[in-house]
Amino acid sequence: MPIVLGGGLSGLSAAYYLSKRYIQPVTVVEASKRLGGWVKSEPDPEKGFIFEAGPRTIRPKGPAAANTLELLEDLGLENEIQPIYPHHPAARVRMIYARNRLHVLPSSLGGVMKQTSLFKEPLINSVFHDLKAPRSSQLLDDEPIYDFVSRRFGNDVAQYAISPMICGICAGDAKEISVRFLMNDLFEKEQKYGGVIKGMLLGSLFGKRKSPDESLKKAQNSNLAKRAKEEGWSIYSLKGGLEQFPRALAGKLVENNVEIKTNAECKKLKFYNDRAVVNISGNEHETDHVISALPSHKLANLVQQEHPSLACMLRSIPYVTVAVVNVQYDLCDLLEDEAFGFLVPPSENLPILGVIFDSCCFNMNRKTVLTVMMGGRWFHEHFGLKPSTKDILKTALKHLKNILKIEETPSKTAVRILEDCIPQYTVGHTARVENIRNYIERNGLPLAVCGAAYDGVGVNDVILSARRTVESLTQC
Ligand SMILES: Cc1cc2nc3c(=O)[nH]c(=O)nc-3n(C[C@H](O)[C@H](O)[C@H](O)COP(=O)(O)OP(=O)(O)OC[C@H]3O[C@@H](n4cnc5c(N)ncnc54)[C@H](O)[C@@H]3O)c2cc1C
């Protein structure tokens, strides 16, 4: 009778995969009154637009993405999907704000060959840089993604392409984030062949082709995954907002007789004789297995007393706080450029990480809707320890005015400070997660961990993390 801790996307997915394997009864325990974790959509039914407080788009490419699409199909959400097609400006145009102006990132081969305003040289030169640059002076286990990219492709690419991209992925600092975790394939190519391009060429001639993951082959052949590939989706969301996803998942769980407890905080975990005792809001429940889909620092608090060294390892995964500011203007044509939005390299030393042009991506009923992401790794440096939402809104609007030249007053705004919302995959993350899972196995704890803390921050990653965790449990 497994108990799943956490009713975010990862916990709900874990319960779904358990119930799909006819493992019953399953209980999901969620501390707050709502399900979905960071996925939170606030539609304005009167004006016909949506504010997303957390994730808003999902990537459709790759095996993990196919797994999500298979799940969406199983939930009957295929007709709710809103894809962005390759010709759409939100698919083609991504911008960087640097040196007091917006620059469009090259998105075609032609663009890569040309001189652009952002980089000192055409991007193609970074390929030659990689071909000429020696491999790292010694074999490395891991290093910051910034150092790797700077060594292989030049400092400009590290500063103006990779650093803002890392802000967009995990609100983090490329000078701290692990290349082994986020770009393992490229990193291995350098370590093995002495360069990324060399590695690609030699690998395709002499290397063994990685066979597609057996357990994901079926997902890759699902109707929705095939449709996404055929139609070339760039990214997608759901009509009515991404929160439709956890809602539909929860509905499916109820159908499959999974018990879902909300307002039920797990306060402590104890283990004895292959069993776990879960303290839920003061009441003890015994179970033969616990799957934790909680942020790692929250799980640390639960095991602190009995397993302080496990708690210490869990706490060594840092988290950052992001302020999300949604703004809506009644006018529809306030943006000079149609694009997905823009990101800001940390070297600009601004409090904003980037701005998403929601109304360019999806239909917002002829309103201009934007989301400003702020803080992240530098939240406290810019905003101090206890910033007010009023100050945060003021800062966001000031930057929208400076950068996008928007002088209008928004009709509606929402400010949320999402405390410790994004885990940071700092150098050594892969080894850290391995140590956590090894500790659990060595000590024979009836516990498994999944979710954003361990296996990747994207929606696709947390769902696949849940699936793999359930598969590894049911194989034993
Ligand atoms: C601002 C923001 C924007 C993002 N944008 C994107 C995007 O566009 N695309 C994308 O793919 N990904 C995006 N992500 C990442 C993605 O949303 C997350 O990685 C994912 O939602 C995490 O899911 P999870 O289930 O692992 O964790 P969470 O969502 O953190 O769920 C954990 C759950 O556990 C509960 N909980 C905590 N403590 C306890 C306890 N003691 N007992 C019981 N329950 C407890 C919490 O209340 C929560 O519901 C974004 C994230 C953020 C924060």
UniProtKB/TrEMBL annotation:
It comes from the Eukaryota. It is an enzyme of class 1 (oxidoreductase). Pathway: Porphyrin-containing compound metabolism; protoporphyrin-IX biosynthesis; protoporphyrin-IX from protoporphyrinogen-IX: step 1/1. The keyword Transcription does not apply. It catalyses: protoporphyrinogen IX + 3 O2 = protoporphyrin IX + 3 H2O2. It is found in: Mitochondrion inner membrane. Its cofactor is FAD. GO terms for molecular function: oxygen-dependent protoporphyrinogen oxidase activity. The keyword Oxidoreductase applies. Pfam families: Amino_oxidase. InterPro entries: Amino_oxidase, FAD/NAD-bd_sf, Protoporphyrinogen_oxidase, Zeta_carotene_desat/Oxidored. One of its GO terms (biological process) is protoporphyrinogen IX biosynthetic process. Binds 1 FAD per subunit. Its EC number is 1.3.3.4. Its main location: mitochondrion. GO terms for cellular component: mitochondrial inner membrane. Residues 9-471 form the Amine oxidase domain. Keywords: FAD, Flavoprotein, Heme biosynthesis, Oxidoreductase, Porphyrin biosynthesis. Belongs to the protoporphyrinogen/coproporphyrinogen oxidase family. Protoporphyrinogen oxidase subfamily. PANTHER family: PROTOPORPHYRINOGEN OXIDASE (PTHR42923:SF3). Catalyzes the 6-electron oxidation of protoporphyrinogen-IX to form protoporphyrin-IX. This is Protoporphyrinogen oxidase. It comes from Hermetia illucens (Black soldier fly). The lineage of its organism: Eukaryota, Metazoa, Ecdysozoa, Arthropoda, Hexapoda.
